[in-house]
Design a protein that fits this description.
The protein has 3 helices and 17 strands. By secondary structure, the chain is mainly beta. The strands form 5 sheets. A 5-stranded antiparallel beta sheet has the order 1-2-4-5-6, with no helix packed on it. The protein has a 4-stranded antiparallel beta sheet with strand order 8-9-10-11, with no helix packed on it. The chain has a 4-stranded antiparallel beta sheet with strand order 12-13-14-15, with no helix packed on it.
């Protein structure tokens, strides 16, 4: 749902074209051809990574009229085993035609549609962000005990020809959680203007400071360079209160202030 915070008389707009699932965030960028591209994750075990590519193109002088780009376009879901974005297009996919009644039916039942077309189940894709310098896409996978992935990882996705509207990609495990790296359960992400990645973690309060998570202590904020000799090496910048997770890191334009949302401190006390 899109809300204009600068117009109290505006009507919230539901953007069904982006799909119906557990949206943790959206990351927007402009493809070389001018299309608006929106990257999204579905925050649950064995759910999927999506992107939306608008039919129309972004025009800087159009202002708020660009919001119409979110109304008509193609929703894709990722198959990481093949390195392909699969279009959730009812008219062009026989499997979708057999399982659903219309394109609207596909969009409001995205989880089922993604499974039908063979998308890759992921380990709680909570956040996706686009690198401000090289345009690669970073994906935070928090964990998935069903897959034996207790610590999570951050994936770096490379679109073919550096085109965000492309239908093929490659990827790497950029940083893996665990005792060696010093962090676990990566959640929300943010970049500074130098391209460094800032990561907050979400070890559940029921697991924090116990068992396999004992060495990590409380949740934290971590700084990870994306290039240079320290690429992929996490350094802890701050620690959350007992029982809390920190979410939503975001810098002011001058980068002198970093905002964080501290959720449920002392939850189990």
């Amino acid at each position: 749902v899109e809300v204009d915070p600068f117009d109290p008389n505006s009507t919230p707009k539901k953007h069904t074209a982006l799909g119906r699932f557990s949206h943790e965030n959206t990351a927007m960028t402009i493809a070389p051809g001018g299309q608006l591209v929106v990257y999204m994750g579905d925050d649950a075990n064995d759910q999927y990574v999506y992107k939306y590519v608008s039919k129309g193109t972004y025009k800087q002088d159009a202002g708020k009229a660009n919001t119409k780009l979110l109304e008509e376009g193609t929703l894709y879901v990722a198959n990481f085993g093949k390195g392909k974005w699969i279009a959730l297009d009812y008219e062009k996919n026989e499997a979708l035609q057999k399982a659903f009644k219309s394109q609207a039916d596909v969009l409001v039942n995205c989880r089922e549609a993604a499974k039908v077309v063979g998308a890759t189940p992921m380990d709680r894709p909570e956040d996706l962000e686009v690198h401000p310098i090289d345009g690669t896409v970073f994906i935070s996978l928090t964990n998935n005990s069903k897959h034996g992935n207790f610590y999570g990882q951050v994936i770096r996705l490379f679109e073919e020809d550096n085109n965000h509207a492309a239908e093929e990609f490659t990827f790497e495990i950029f940083a893996a959680g665990g005792p060696q790296s010093g962090f676990a359960a990566p959640d929300n992400l943010a970049f500074d203007s130098a391209g460094n990645l800032w990561v907050v973690t979400d070890i559940s309060s029921s697991s924090m400071n116990s068992g396999i998570y004992k060495t990590f202590g409380n949740n934290g904020l971590f700084f990870i360079p994306t290039s240079g000799p320290d690429k992929g090496i996490a350094s802890q910048f701050a620690s959350a209160p007992v029982g809390a997770e920190m979410t939503g890191p975001w810098f002011t334009p001058d980068e002198k202030t970093l905002f964080l949302s501290v959720q449920h401190p002392g939850e189990n006390l």
